[in-house]
Amino acid sequence: MSIFNLLRVRIPVLVLCSFIFFTCDDATYDLDNPNDPENMDLEPPALFFHPSEIDTKLDSSFSMQLYGLKLKPAAAAHLDIRYEYGSVQIDSVVADTFFQSLNDPFQIVDDDSSGTLDYFIYLLPDTVAEMNEGGTWSLATVYFTAISTGGSELLFGENTKLRDANNDSVAVKSFGSGFINVE
Amino acid sequence: MMSIIRGIIILQFVCFCFASETTKAVSLKTGSQLAILEFEGWAISQPLTEFLTEEFRETVRDLKIFQVQDRGITNKFKIFKPRKRDYWSCWSEECALDLGRKLGVNYVLAGNIQKKGDDEFLIKGRLFSVDMETILNEFAMNSSGITDSLLLEMKKMAYNVSGLPVPDTLSVGSDLSQVATSEDIKQKRQWIQLPPIPSKIKALMMSTALPGSGQIWAEKKYPGYGFMGTEATLGTAALIAYLQYDKAWGGFEKTYSDYQKGSDPHELIELRPKIIQYAADTRKYNAFMKNIRSVGLSIWAVNMVHAYLVAPSDDFFDGEYFFDLEYKTDVNQVQFNVNF
């Protein structure tokens, strides 16, 4: 059998053999997204502001999420938010997915307009569960309006706490902070 | 005194005049004993080569140029120099002259019949002079067709060996269609005019291009299919690994792109373990492919050496013009010989 016949008959084998020479690049990556909670130096379970920094303009509206990182199952929360009075003003607070069930959560917003926001939120039990499953989710979104230029900080106050369906405390080990820069 | 001197001069002149004829008479006394060694068959059966060799002997004997030695005596060389059947036994000058001396003949003819394609044969022969210790002539004939055509070519070769013109009856008796085919082959080859490639190099090149093909070409089918199958299996494994790698790489690229563009912490924290998993998968499958490549290339190299070793040694590889890698059973060593 000539070499041409061999090649003609065994081209599939030749093609298969050619795959022996295949090698590719190894995947390389940097998980350095600043919005990744793993890059925020927080010890879970934790609460933090998302985004942690906002640049905005005077008289413009913006929002920040109150986020939980790897939280245990919870049924209610009291979020004590400290902000710089005179720099920003709170327009509204809207519950997000963490306490969402088949029913919308029950919430109380107490803004004394002096730099402290007390926000109470309760999960209303349904036929499936009486508390959520925990995890990394947004608890609420706060809408602000910038009323003066300069930088101001957002902090979680000491009254911030979470409770489960048995009214037992849900641990939160660390708290993040936020920063608003108004130009 | 003068008459004696004149007589000596005349005698010297006469001797000078007949000197060339005297030399010719000596050369004629070298004898015409010819031993025709059994032709080596390559890819054709042993009974057929034996039959063709004997027919060749009979034809040369009938032409009465040589005194052809009887088959039984000639075949004693197998006792002198036993060799494996799949190697051409005595194709080199050194071997043929050695056998010729042992057989006590003046000439030795060695040859082989190679099957080149489905219906194509190449008959090659060498006529050695034992007394002059050299190759006198070399013959090569192409035959395409059935055994009858092969027999016809052997008879033509007998005429060539005997130095006689091939009679027209042999040409007329041949199958014209087969002759035409043979002519076509010759004409095609004239266009290419490639130098002859030694069989070992050819097998090496074939096995380099496709593992096992050199062995199959050299009629070592089991090792050939073994190498081919092994490499094909490794290739299949490499292909599967590559497809898995490709899938993992696709997933990695998508999730990593989403991660880099994303801003939602919930999504980012879910993408993170996926990226790590996809990257680990790509590394795993890539490492597997690298291992297959190492093993496959090693086997490929072994296959090339094996093809070279098992391919028949032909006239380019008998230590006269080229190099030779040969396993010597008597000293249990592989020897590499280079001659210019």
Please tell me about this protein's structure.
The complex is a heterodimer of chains A (183) and B (340). With 183 residues, chain A is mainly beta. Chain A has one domain (44-182): Immunoglobulin-like (Sandwich). In chain A, 8% of the residues lie in helices and 43% in strands. Chain A is built from two helices and 13 strands; from the N terminus they run ααβββββββββββββ. The model of chain A has no long low-confidence stretch (mean pLDDT 87). Chain B has 340 residues and is of the alpha/beta class. Helix content of chain B is 60%, strand content 15%. Chain B has helices spanning 2-17, 19-28, 46-63, 71-74, 77-80, 93-103, 147-161, 168-173, 176-192, 199-209, 213-217, 221-261, 265-310; strands at 33-36, 40-42, 67-68, 107-115, 120-129, 134-144, 323-328, 333-338. In chain B, β5 and β6 form a beta hairpin. Chain B is elongated, with a radius of gyration of 32 Å. Residues 15-29, 84-88, 172-186 and 315-321 of chain B have low confidence and may be disordered. Chain A binds chain B through residues 1-3, 6-7, 10, 13-29, 31, 33, 35-38, 50-51, 67, 69, 135-138, and chain B through 116-117, 202, 205-206, 209-211, 213, 216-217, 228, 231-232, 234-236, 238-239, 242, 245, 248-249, 252, 256, 259-260, 262-266, 268-269, 272, 275, 278-279, 282-283, 286, 289-290, 292-293, 296-297, 300.
